[in-house]
Amino acid sequence: MKTKQFRIWVFAAAMLCAGALAGCSTERTEPPSEPDAPVTHTPSPDETTTDVPDLSTRAVLLDEQTIELTTYGSSSCPDEAIDVDPVDAATIAVQLDNETDERPCTADYAPVEHTVDIPAEVTERPITLELHWQNSSDSATIPVE
């Protein structure tokens, strides 16, 4: 019985040694491969641009009687030009309102175009707009381009 047990132990030890030696004897010729990196595109200097869209309030003279005023804000709660008054021969005051009716507004930034009729009292060029937002301390003075 001891001989049979001895043979089992010798066989187990031999298998253990063979496995250990087999693991040590394998030689890697290549480094382990890394997962494929995502394909990216690095733009060349000719492809890069520093153009940033102009998202500021602006006014453009369409003709001698009309100005196009562009404001930016939430598309679901847009500004509305509610009052236009001459200040002097070259300045127009525009009252803007943003009625939300206590409803939530979207968090986007969209342009809203307003057509502003030039009052007859405004005869000089260039024209300046004084913008005032109702129920707010916000105001801006911008030239008409």
UniProtKB/TrEMBL annotation:
Secretion signal span: 1-22
Organism: Enteractinococcus helveticum
Region ranges (Disordered): 25-54
Descriptive protein name: Lipoprotein
Highest taxon in the source lineage: Bacteria
Bias type Polar residues, positions: 41-51
Keywords: Signal
